[in-house]
Specification:
The chain has two helices and six strands, in the order αβββαβββ. It has a single domain, classed as Trna Endonuclease, Chain: A, domain 1 (3-Layer(aba) Sandwich), CATH 3.40.1350.10. The mean pLDDT is about 90. The N and C termini lie far apart (about 35 Å). A six-stranded mixed beta sheet has the order 1-2-3-4-6-5. The protein is about 30% helix and about 35% strand. β5 and β6 (about 120-125) form a beta hairpin. It is of the alpha+beta class.
């Protein structure tokens, strides 16, 4: 499987996992010159807008998916999120940026992180804007 295909599979897994938890998909693959956001959801309870960066790693050799979101990527995510918010909602709308790492499941994968033979690690509010 090529890198783009793995990324698409990871996004699909993250999307279905969050939808199962009641999150409503607003859009995906939002891209502007300042950056891109993989998934944008609305929180099921408080209507908070949730921007989601999805990272796939086949293993931990080079660090996990969460650690791969460096300061440059964080800055791009914040800028892209701000651009989306400015054109779609009022200034009072709450928002956050989450990171979801996807990797093949192992025998040690906790049941609450197991999803379709993959391990999902979700870090809500991972990036402060």
């Amino acid at each position: 499987m090529h890198m783009k295909q793995r990324g698409d599979v990871a996004e699909s897994l993250a999307k279905s996992w969050l939808q199962l938890k009641g999150y409503r998909l607003v859009t995906q693959n939002y891209a502007r010159r300042v950056g891109e956001i993989d998934l944008i959801f609305q929180h099921p309870v408080d209507d908070c807008i949730v921007f989601v960066e999805v990272r796939y790693r086949s293993g931990q050799r080079y660090g996990g998916g969460i650690e791969s979101v460096d300061w440059k990527k964080q800055r791009k995510l914040v800028r892209a999120a701000q651009a989306w918010l400015q054109s779609h909602v009022s200034s009072r709308t709450r928002a956050r940026i989450d990171v979801i790492a996807v990797q093949p499941a192992s025998p040690d994968t906790p049941a609450e992180q197991y999803w379709h033979a993959h391990e999902i690690t979700w870090v809500p509010n991972a990036i402060e804007s």
